[in-house]
Design a protein that fits this description.
Two copies of one chain form a homodimer. Chain A is 32% helix and 26% strand. With 421 residues, chain A is α/β, with parallel strands linked by helices. Chain A folds into two domains: 136 residues, 3-Layer(bba) Sandwich (FAD/NAD(P)-binding domain); 201 residues, 3-Layer(bba) Sandwich (FAD/NAD(P)-binding domain), CATH 3.50.50.100. In chain A, helix 7 links the parallel strand 11 and strand 12. In chain A, strands 5-2-1-9-21-20 form a six-stranded mixed sheet. In chain A, strands 13-12-11-17 form a four-stranded parallel sheet. The first copy, chain A, is built from eleven helices and 27 strands. At the A-B interface, strand 4, helix 3, strand 5, helix 5 and helix 11 of A face strand 4, helix 3, strand 5, helix 5 and helix 11 of B.
């Protein structure tokens, strides 16, 4: 009798963990992704700020299939799922499954604002991070030979939308890039001429964190020279300006959007499946889809409730769900059942700058140097591949000692998506 | 009195060496390049074969201007030179000079064969190396799910044109990538199903080397599984085939062209300047242009004769000429003269594969392991930047021990230039 087949659609944190958990079991395992690598998204902002080379945060998926007998990888774009026929539909043909783990992740949500989508950068993909790095470096190149002071100021103004961990980390890293590297690279540009504006709709940054950490993050960013605009909303953008609710217009050639995500488009292509806010797929307590006990949904694309609230769209949730889905598949095969999925909140953290971070775990909070070290170690731990860990550690050490970032290469002067500059 | 200004047009090996030699002197130094980095071209083929990340062989030029007082960098495309008005014309405006070093390098020469230009990869730029890597990896992804055996074979056939060091090194590295990595990554593809065909018009490879080394290289490549076609010329190409003189057609989706270079287009934009074969600028014995003792031409774009023959277009020539031009500029300022430029041939080398290379210096030849170690050490020595040396050494060590190449990422499925796949 041939082995039963598990197909994993999407190899982000959730899919990767499910695959790893199933890799030793008696299933045929097929992993599908549109990229041939697993991307460590939490460090994308460091690629965008010239701190890491893009290769350091990506791990080739075929490096895993080589180690896992019975597993294989398919590089393909998934267009839909035939739930009745048990087929994943891809541009490389249909892939039949016995069990399916949908782990397609999320995409940036511009809340219907087309002008913002057309004129902003977001940080979901590797090429976007490289584009953003090129754009920031090119803005400095242009600013350093710009005679018009108004245009120069706009080239040197960077607007970041969204005060969650990504926005906070990016703002801090960009400020350090400018102060320690770019203003020294460009004698014609002083760090005081540059502006980094972090725009947040709520009344504080890092709203998921305790109040003392929110205040610390805000003060720290302020001390570093980042302007924080709270209770402000972006309502539109052009290539050279950002428009706020209330009529304020910021002259800026660079808009970075980290203010919202919604489920990957695949969620919308599933017929007869209930969806929640942000297009996320509503799942049963065991993460399966109603009437399809062989289909599990994990990570950002799944809407799981805890105390009546949807779980946040972040890596730890995806990892725990991926692991649970793998155990459920094994249990189903053996005719067993498992208790409903329960998310164990290990806490969260965000780094602000050199020697400075905030972290919370249970009722315990920590900030400053200790939190920063913890952040570094945890991110190294979660990276996959010995080589990637080594390269990242080397880069961090180098940056720490020399306050230098060597990856400041403009590899292309063209944006791959919409054009901004 | 203000300092006199030296402008260096192009920051390859020749320009970089000239700039370095002048960095301590009493000149204002302006370096111009279309990229914001110096590229170590001899290792581009390792980027294309997934052995090195692209950042490891590029060094940010502003890292140099920070260390060199009185120097500055301009990111610009040079469109021409006003020799009478002493102005370099760029897309960022004209740049006046007192002395000029033209070091614009070379471009690939397809000898007028448009179909080859449109359907081949060449290895001059960083993005081309990344494109070629993506294309090779993608060819294996497509081959591993291709049902048609004829199409599968074409996807797995790689034609390399030009039996000089670049062609030989690329052929060897590609073969190792396929045998040690890609055929293990793709269980559906055996290394025996792949073909690497190295096409050379002359009757041997590495024609600049002594006969015993030529034979060794040819035997070694053959033993590795590379097919060598001598006395063969490519006369045309389509996206899926390569046409040889005499009518032979090779079914192949990948054509790599390393069979010729000519001077950079800038050479053609200089009025009243004599040009030699390949469009190279004819220079005086002191590397200046006739009637323009303030303009020096170095590297691939210059045509310098030795014993009546033009010097080869390679890094050692450019480096020695860059150094000479800097000394000449200082001598001119002091009203002194220097003996004519004399190229000191330190020899040449090419690596074929793991533990295997050929090298020649004066009348001395060496091959095998010793030559390979010498090749590694010399390339590390000529790389600039401590960090780059460390990263490259780490990658080489890793590849040597684990026979693994971790940079096998498909970062884009689109070719930036003409489309092949």
């Amino acid at each position: 009798m041939s082995k039963k087949r598990v197909v994993i659609a999407g190899m982000g944190f959730g899919g990767l963990r499910a695959a790893k958990a199933l890799s030793g079991s008696d299933f045929e395992l097929i992993m599908i992704d549109r990229n041939n690598y697993h991307l460590f998204q939490p460090l994308l902002y460091q690629v965008a700020t010239a701190g890491l080379e893009q290769e350091a945060i990506a791990y080739p998926l075929r490096g895993l299939t080589r180690r896992w007998p019975g597993s294989s990888f398919l590089l393909a774009e998934i267009s839909g799922i035939d739930l009745e026929g048990k087929n994943v539909l891809t541009d490389a043909g249909p892939v039949p499954y016995d069990y399916l783990v949908i782990a397609a992740g999320s995409r940036t949500n511009f809340f219907g604002m087309e002008s913002v989508g057309a004129h902003s950068f977001d940080l979901k993909r590797l090429d976007q991070a490289e584009d953003l790095r090129n754009h920031i470096l090119l803005s400095f190149e242009h600013a350093s030979r710009e005679a018009d002071p108004v245009r120069k100021a706009a080239l040197l103004t960077f607007v970041i939308v969204g005060g969650g961990p990504t926005g906070v980390e990016f703002a801090g890293a960009l400020r350090e890039l400018i102060v320690h590297v770019l203003s020294k690279d460009h004698p014609e540009v002083s760090a005081d001429e540059t502006r980094i504006i972090l725009v947040e709709a709520a009344d504080s940054l890092l709203t998921a964190m305790p109040i003392n950490l929110r205040q610390y993050a805000c003060q720290k960013l302020h001390a570093m020279g980042v302007e924080v605009l709270l209770e402000s909303r972006v309502v539109g953008a052009t290539a050279e300006s950002v428009h706020l609710h209330g009529g304020t217009v910021l002259s800026s050639h660079t808009l970075i959007w980290s203010a919202g995500v919604s489920a990957a488009t695949l969620a919308g292509h599933l017929e007869g499946v209930e969806r929640a806010a942000g297009g996320r797929i509503v799942v049963q307590p065991d993460l399966s889809i109603k009437e399809h006990p062989e289909v599990f949904v994990v990570g950002d694309i799944a809407c799981t409730l805890k105390d009546g609230m949807p779980l946040p769209m972040m890596a730890p949730v995806a990892i725990q769900q991926g692991s649970y889905a793998a155990r459920m598949i094994c249990a189903r095969e053996q005719g067993r059942s498992l208790p409903p999925f329960h998310y164990f909140d290990k806490g969260s953290m965000a780094t602000i700058g050199r020697s400075s971070a905030v972290a919370t775990a249970a009722d315990f909070t920590v900030r400053g140097y200790i939190a920063w070290i913890a952040w570094l170690l945890l991110h190294l731990y979660y990276l996959i591949g010995f080589r990637n860990r080594l390269v990242v550690m080397m880069n961090w050490t180098y940056a720490y000692w020399f306050q230098e970032r060597q990856v400041r290469l403009i590899t292309s002067k063209k944006r791959r998506a919409a054009s901004v500059l």
